[in-house]
Model the fold of this input.
Amino acid sequence: MLRSPAFLIERWQLTHVSTLIQTLIVGLRLGSIYALVALGYTMVYGIIRLINFAHGDFIMVGGYTMIFTMPLALALGLPVWVSVIFAILACALVGMSTELIAYRPIRKKGTSMTALITAIAVSMILENLAQAIPPIGPNPIVTSQIFSTGGFSVAGVTMEWTTVLTIVISAIVMIVLYEFTQKTRMGRAMRCVSEDKEASILMGIDVNNTILLTFGIGSGLSAIAALMYLGQYPKVYTTMGVMLGLKAFVAAVLGGIGIIPGAMVGGLIIGLVESFTTTYVSSSMADTFVFLILIIVLIIKPAGLLGKNVGEKV
Amino acid sequence: MKNRTAKGYILNTVVIAAILIGALIIQSVFGKNQNFKLILVPSIWQCCYLIILAASLNLVLGFLGQLSLGHCGFMAIGAYAAALISLACQRAGIFTDAKGAAFVLVLVGCILIAGILAALVGLLVGIPALRLKGDYLAIITLGFGMIIVNIINNLPFAGQEGLAKGSAAASLYKNGLGFGTASKVTYLMVALAVTLICLIMMFMFIRSKYGRAIKAIRDDEIAASASGINTSYYKILTFTYSAFFAGIAGALYACANATLSTSSFAFTNGGILNSTFVVVMVVLGGMGSLTGSALAAIIMFFVNYQIKNGLWVKSLTGFLGGMFAYPMLVYAIILIIVIMFRPKGIFGTYEFSLINFHRDIKNRRAQRALQKADRKGGESE
Done:
């Protein structure tokens, strides 16, 4: 059947535009998950100057906690997503105990290099310990849908409810967190400690407790990220946090590590880059482009997009 | 002093010659023994590339003081380069099966070209990466390692399926490398000689003016540059040099294994070979000690071998047995214990040397005695 060229061009434009918008939305959804994880990285780095490699694995902890508490939530007659509360508690607990058991002793006597290597070791321990625990095991566990399926369609662009919820929830969390660090006493204490530890001790701030709190909040955020992630890909496995964590870290560095709005901007950029590469280049090259962006930004502006260059004191 | 240096060289040469001759004799006597062929020789091959790998990372991590998390990326380049070149040579008809002088030439050529290619990539990566330091350098090298592996995966002629499409299977047997048991025994000398030459080259590098310069950079970069050391030149030089040896280790890996897969060179995986594992080896041996790295590589290989094949591991039950099913868990615990209780590693910055060994032991005893006396004096006061 022959169609007029004008019709074909119009149709091509329509699909083209809707693909573009679809890619944009996918990117935003991915980006808001990355931003949530990146917030945890950035808070911890901002306060103790340590790349917490284990942060990605906190997502895994959150994912498994949700899997195991979902039946409980259902039995109580609550919606499935309520299990995220247990996940937040579990993640915060794991995060704080990591800080207490591994990072605090090392920080006292080691250099920044040994701290970094310890972080890598903690990440390996969490991943492999989870595999060694019998109910978890090395094989992925598939969950049921967390959010209700379906969605609405506008001009050829499908919006799933999951997508909308992901973007909205992470936006709310980010705004609350930002206000928390700006307005509350604890938030201000956090910013003080990250700026100058000695001075904040003199101001009567309990530095160790503040660091612990930061770990708790950061890890709790990764549980929310786990909820979003599971809403999209309902499957948990012990290494699920590795790539997610690495990309979120890239996002944190991209935006300027230690800066909370930077993590949000970086997360969204990484999400968009990934979804556009997947759509327009090749899905297997997405990781390459993500890291390429990181390298380019680090070379041009080592402090990140929103970071300020600080001169080195001699 | 000069006399002593000469003596040291002679002693080392004699010992190395003795080791090689001893290996030759063992090879000719036990060549037919099943245990020798199936257990010892493959173990030596694995140890060889692990030693080179650990020592080469130590140049960057221990002597230059920069954490590189993408070291296996360079190894991947070496492994794939060696495999592809040997495949090309075989297609060109230079050799038909893994025998004869032509093949030995091709083998040596493969190893060298693998090293040089890895060094070139190391140079390309190093120029932008080494403008950063500390955590940022760690991340950027991690990124480069991932990019290298990702690109190899996507190359039409390499990749997960590339070599498979090229020859009969993903197996390396068909293209000369990927030695079987017999060839591993035949070319054992190649592995030993390559390892020794690499170690000697690294030692000479560390003891030359270049080595002193990079140690100065590690200790205080600003002071070093104020003393007239071109820090970025030396950093990139070390990085490239280290990548060269990682490439050679990769070529040996391609010889010693039946298949190549990019997942072996990733940042972490379940097996023995990944960038984190190399870091574990270097930290265990001591950051800043090449002999320490070599020793740690052998120890870690042994631990890995025991975990995989040891009878006592199989007799463990329950949770403990489950733990040993995941070797990376054991390595991570080793790493944490080492960092907590002996952050310097086994050797610290001490270099084992044949001629100084006696003197070092004596000095150390004297030091210990002195410390003890001090402590006693302190208590009595």
